Structures are given as C-alpha cells and as structure tokens.
Amino acid sequence: MAVLSITDVSKVFAAGNPAVDRFSLDVADGELVCLLGPSGSGKSTLLRMVGGFERPTAGRITIDGEDVTTLPPEKRPTGMVFQSHALWTHMNVFRNLAFGLKLRRLPAAEIKRKVEAVLDLVGLAGFGSRHVNQLSGGQQQRVALARSLVLEPKILLLDEPFASLDQHLRERLREEVRDIQQRLGITTLFVTHGQDEALSMADRIVVMREGRTEQIDRPDAVYRDPQTPFVAGFIGTMNLIEGTVANGIFTRAGLAVPLPVADGPAVLAIRPEALDLAAADPGQARVHRVTDFGTHGLVDLELGDGLRIKSMVSHPDLFKVGQPVNLAPRAVAAYRDNARIHRG
Prior knowledge:
The structure is a single chain. The protein is of the alpha+beta class. It folds into two domains: 4-231, Rossmann fold, CATH 3.40.50; 238-336, CATH 2.40.50.140. 24% of the residues lie in helices and 36% in strands. The chain is built from eight helices and 21 strands. The strands form four sheets. Strands 6-7-8-3-9-10 form a six-stranded mixed β-sheet, sandwiched between helices. Helix 2 packs parallel to helix 4 (137-149). The longest helix is centred in the middle third of the chain and has 18 residues, at 167-184.
C-alpha cells in the first residue's frame, strides 16, 4: 500500500509570487495521477516538493500517513524520473542501476538479480554492459525509469519524461510506462503539458493554473465536462466564443444559439466534433480553410466579425474556401465569471 497525501501545500520563491498556492491532493494506492497545465502553472514545482528537491513554504506531505515534508530526497520512499534522464554517462547501464543499491549495501548477487529483473521489465534485457552514450533517447529514458524502479519506491514521480522524444517514440513509451505502472501497481504522480499523454495515461487528471487546481477528474470527464473556461480551452480543441445572451438566445456576429440562462455576457464553448455545417447563402460563417487529415477533415470558419472557429467533418471535400455555411452545434457549454452556467 502506498497513499500520497498533499495538504494545503504552498511554495513561494524569492520574487514573492506563489508558484504553488494551497494545493491539496490525495493519490490512492496504485493510482496514476497526472498534473497537467501550461508552463508556469506550478506542476513541476509541486512534483519536486513531493520528491524532496524543494521544501514547501507551507503545508504537509505524507506517504502512508508518515510526514515526509522536511525529509531530503534520499530519505523518502520515492523515485523520480527527470526529463533530462540524469544518467551518469561515464558508467554503463548496469552500474547506473546498481549505484543506489550499492549505497544500501546489498550483496552483489542480490544487486545483480534486481538489476537484471528491472532491465527485463523495461525491455532492455542484455543491455547492462552498454554505455549510456551508445543508447538511443528512448533507451536512455527506459534506463532512467529502471533506475528509479530498481529501488522499489512506494511513489513513482515522472517529470515530463517524454518531452525530448519524437512523437512516435513518445507514444510508444507512454504506453509501455503505463503497462509497467499497472503491472507493478505502483502509485504514480506524472507531470506533463501534453494533453494526449494525460488523456491516454492517467486515472485522474489535475488541471493546474497559476499554482492552483482548476479541476480534478477522470480524463473523460475533464474532456467532456470542463468546469471552467480555462479547462475547456486547455484540454483538446475548443471553440470559445464570447457573446451576449438576451431572451434565451446567445448571439455573436450573426451566430445565434438558444441558451437557457439569465441575460448577460457569456462564453459559449463548442467542440469542433459537435459543430455541424450546412451550406447556406447567406450563412452565419464562411469557410476560411479546409484541411484533410485522411480520417477526418477540419474546417476553419470565420464569423462576420473575423472570429475564427473550427468544425470537424467526415467529408472535407464538400466544403470550399469562401463558401457560406450555417452552424448547428449538437452540444454546448456556457461560462460566466469563470464558472459554468450551462451544459447541454
């Protein structure tokens, strides 16, 4: 069992602005939770505080009920994998992995057994004698993961470990890491600014902004049911349209959508896949660009006042640049004062 609890944790650096502001989170045994947010949202600072590389200005961090808030990294039951790999290039793979075990004064035979087992786990069986500079970027990241796992931590911390890899390798490695995490049942906290990584790997996603939590939920709920306009705009592609509601109708530059909320300003949110198009003259918008991705098309549209929005279509060949169209949203959400006021 390994349960991580973060309670009212804050971190203020010398400049005075909080990098993390009264953040709380409980990570269950065996759960993979992803911290997702733009650069400067505080996610890496929070991870470093859990790992002991930064000390909180306030708040408490416990693992299985034990307070580790002030413990140094080597005294915590955590293992951290960095974006930069942080491998010792003058050592071969075996020595990189064995280093921490030697510090624990384990017998040589046990060290050999543990290292070989973890190399097999990450798909690098037989690579122990290779030098780090003989490995590809993906292999180096596997070694970095193995170096953390060989110490059998209670909590695994991943700080954007795939950010420096190309897209195909990134996709393959995140699947492998998720498989390993589930096989071991290890409690994991994962930092990324990549939405695809968060949506494909996490049991829950914590969307962060300016050191605070915007929303904590399952990946499908964060995508389909964003609680704030920031989450709506940050997760996936979303059309965010500022306009006005009067007598139950939202309007903006010729666009009119029924919206059963009180009169006043509002932000309408529509996913491209939930926005249907129909040829019409005159229309509510004009086609600005059509992109054919093979599996689907993306139509860039321009409202009368120049605002650009997007629609996902099955047959992009049906739409041409300059064509007038009407818009028929199948699902919308609306926000006012940073809170959702409608979903339907």
